[in-house]
Design goal:
Layout: H1 2-23, E1 30-36, H2 49-56, E2 58-64, H3 74-83, E3 91-92, E4 104-106, E5 109-111, H4 115-124, H5 133-137, E6 143-146, H6 148-154, E7 160-161, E8 164-165, H7 170-173, E9 179-186, E10 199-200, H8 218-242, E11 247-252, E12 264-269, E13 274-277, E14 286-288, H9 292-296, E15 308-311, H10 315-352, H11 359-378, H12 389-409, H13 418-437, H14 461-481, H15 485-504, H16 514-530, H17 536-558, H18 567-577, H19 580-592, H20 595-614, H21 617-623, H22 628-646, H23 651-668
Parallel strand pairs: 1-9, 1-11, 2-13, 2-14, 6-8, 6-9
Antiparallel strand pairs: 2-12, 3-10, 4-5, 5-7, 11-12, 13-15
Helix pairs in contact: 3-6, 10-11, 10-12, 11-12, 11-13, 11-23, 12-13, 13-14, 13-23, 14-15, 14-16, 14-22, 14-23, 15-16, 16-17, 16-22, 17-18, 22-23
Length: about 675
């Protein structure tokens, strides 16, 4: 009896040993169907019945396909999927993308054409993508690439694919596979071609993208969508036959537009309706293309995070949510330039009134400073659904800026600083409150960042410059109105702490470059208001404090779970693993690329200083050394110039911050009410 029991145990052990390798891959097969140029606006039951039917049983979302270049070609999308980092083909032919060719069969497998070009592009890119990572991470899985794009994503670092076939071979090749990538073919405004001649692709967005909307032929695109949907229907039927238990994801990996990147469709099978999201975007209904690799292979290296599903809503409601975001981003892109043109025009009109004192100039100064806040307020309205969205946005922004100015103007009876303080308070609230609450209201504005450009949450450089400048104006009001110097200095420090916390906290603004310069600007202003001279030791202490603030935010973020980190924690990790220099060099090169603008700005500053010296303004400054607004001016210079040097937006920070602060400071000298400044007990350095 004992021998029989031993035999049974031995047999069970053998059985477990046999099935255990298969058990390692007991998860259902994964099928990724990749395409390109598919946007939610064109997914309808009439034109795309198969896509629409799939969305009924899927979690849906938009995917930002932005890679290295302003628009994403099919090769870019598939390379990024396989690398888990932004990658792309560095050349084009008269603006057209490369036509993806079938891999050539060899003794060792199938070789992807033009692989050496792709490797060279990755090596010369600031993102340094590791091509072939998907292949490396799935060596223990049975994989299959169908179509040339799928071969690019599944190729190893030498451009070799072991198992490859045509999409029509799906039912013959796919059974038993763990991972199948399918290139359904994509849609492009300019038909991809085999290159006859090549030129390097631009890495920056063309200026026209901020003024001109997409003008593709709508009927042509819908016809192309119908053809693609018919192919998709065949592929979905074949997947059901070959891999009935597979989990299928459909994703558009490249742009249709030849001029600007747009959000693309992603949908993944789900038991309940929902919206896809990821830690990368923190936004329901939106993921980044770099999220796809860690979704296929958890733990993959790169900036992406695994795709997750926020369940809820009906399929129809979820489609409307993602379509609405698509409409918003398509509308705000060409409206951004006109909004800045409106702002500049209001500045010019303000200059025309400079020789006058009175309500006209006063209102113009306040209104021009209120434009950013007014534009953020317009984001709470469905302006992008109007027949002429840009015109509606411009009129609404202009009208709201006048309303804000009118309300601020009425506060002048309390003192000359109150109107400027009112506009500054509205501006700080408009930009920081949404960030504090986790809203994308400010981020969606012309002064935020489009999700297709790769910034999905928190503070942008322009938002930092505008809110930082406005908060220093508020600090100036405190310095002017609070009688006791040290009390005023403490209030300024508290205001600065709130602004810095919202701007730099990984739960809110997640801004790396802003907190250090904000720390310096507020600390210097508080010391001057308190009457403390800025000695070498104190200046050194302020700089150390600024560095510690940045390090604190990065360290706190790094200590959070990896799937919850922002780029702050990623930078801290790069410091530890020695790769931080790559990030610093990339950011530095973006600043240095603006050297002509920086040179012009420095020349203007030097010329202005010489002119002021010639006019005897330095003596006037010496007489007004107790005026807190002179100290505010110094703090603004620290904030904006420091921000220019430490952030990759460069001169734009000086321009946007200055366009908010200067009119508010100028309004102080044009107010009808006399100054009500509390007397200072002594200038800095005299105590």
């Amino acid at each position: 009896m004992r021998s029989l029991a031993a035999a049974v145990i031995a047999a069970c052990a053998c059985a477990l040993a046999i099935v255990s390798p298969a058990a390692a891959h007991s998860d259902p097969p994964v099928v990724i169907i990749g395409t390109g140029g598919v946007m939610w606006e064109y997914v309808t039951p009439e034109d795309t019945p198969n896509l629409f039917a799939f969305s009924e049983r899927a979690a849906v979302g938009n995917v930002s396909v932005r890679s290295v270049y302003p628009t994403t070609c099919p090769a870019d999308g598939w390379l990024t999927l396989g690398a888990g980092e932004r990658a792309g083909d560095s050349v084009s032919d008269s603006g057209a993308c490369r036509l993806l060719e079938e891999p050539a069969q060899s003794e060792t497998g199938f070789l992807v054409p033009n692989w050496k070009d792709y490797l060279a592009s990755a090596e010369n890119s600031p993102y340094r993508a590791t091509l072939g990572q998907l292949n490396d991470l799935t060596r223990d899985r049975d994989t299959l690439a169908l179509g040339p794009g799928a071969a690019i994503a599944l190729a190893d670092d030498r451009g070799r694919v072991e198992d490859y076939g045509d999409v029509s071979d799906l039912t013959d090749l796919a059974p038993g596979k763990d991972l199948v990538l399918i290139d359904l073919g994509g849609l492009s405004e300019l038909e991809p071609r085999q290159f006859a001649q090549t030129e390097s692709r631009l890495t920056g967005d063309p200026l026209s993208a901020s003024f001109v909307g997409q003008n593709w032929n709508d009927s042509d695109l819908r016809e192309l969508m119908r053809e693609l949907d018919a192919r998709l229907g065949t592929v979905l039927d074949d997947v059901e036959k070959a891999l009935p238990d597979a989990h299928t994801t459909i994703v558009s990996l490249s742009d249709y537009s030849a001029t600007a990147s747009t959000l693309q469709v992603v949908m993944t099978e789900s038991d309940e309706p929902g919206l896809v999201t990821s830690a990368t975007t923190r936004r329901d209904g939106l993921i980044a293309i770099t999220d796809l690799l860690p979704t296929i292979v958890p733990g993959a290296a790169g900036p992406g995070s695994p795709l997750t599903v926020t369940e809820g809503g009906t399929a129809a409601d979820n489609r409307e949510t993602v379509t609405d975001l698509d409409r918003l981003t398509l509308a705000i892109a060409p409206a951004t330039g006109p909004v800045y043109a409106l702002w500049g025009t209001m500045w010019l009109l303000t200059l025309a009134f400079l020789r006058r004192r009175g309500p006209a100039l006063y209102t113009a100064l306040l209104a021009s400073a209120a434009v950013p806040a007014a534009n953020v307020a317009m984001m709470a309205t469905p302006w992008y659904r109007a027949p002429f969205p840009t015109a509606v946005l411009l009129l609404g922004t202009f009208a709201l800026s006048l309303v804000i100015a009118g309300i601020a103007f009425r506060t002048r009876r309390f003192g000359r600083e109150y109107p400027a303080g009112t506009v500054a308070a509205v501006t700080v609230t408009a930009f920081l409150l949404p960030v504090l609450l986790g809203s994308t209201l400010a981020l969606n504005s012309a002064f935020g960042a489009l999700p297709q450009l790769g910034r999905f949450y928190g503070m942008t450089n322009m938002m930092f410059a505008i809110s930082g400048a406005a908060s220093l104006i508020l600090a100036g009001v405190i310095a002017s109105r609070v009688a006791e110097n040290r009390r005023a200095a403490l209030m300024i420090l508290l205001l600065g702490a709130v602004v810095i916390l919202i701007d730099g906290s990984p739960w809110h603004g997640a801004d790396f470059g802003g907190p250090p310069v904000l720390t310096i600007a507020f600390a210097v202003l508080a010391m001057l208001v308190a009457g403390w001279p800025i000695t070498v030791w104190r200046a050194g202490g302020i700089l150390i404090a600024a560095g510690l603030v940045a390090a604190l935010f990065a360290t706190v973020d790094y200590l959070r779970p990896a799937d919850e980190r922002t780029h702050l924690g990623d930078f801290a990790e790069s410091v530890l693993d020695g790769s931080a220099l790559t990030v610093i060099l990339r950011k530095g090169s973006q600043v240095l690329a603006q050297w002509p603008l920086i040179l012009i700005l420095l020349s203007v500053v030097v010329a202005l200083a010489l002119w002021l010296k010639k006019k005897g303004a330095m003596a006037l400054f010496a007489e007004k050394r107790d005026d807190p607004w002179l100290w505010v001016g110094l703090a603004l210079v620290i904030l904006l110039v420091g921000g220019m040097l430490i952030n990759d937006s460069g001169v734009i920070i000086v321009v946007t911050g200055g366009m908010v602060a200067l009119p508010l400071i100028a309004s102080l000298d044009r107010a009808d009410q006399p100054a009500a400044v509390s007397p200072r007990r002594g200038a800095p350095g005299r105590r």
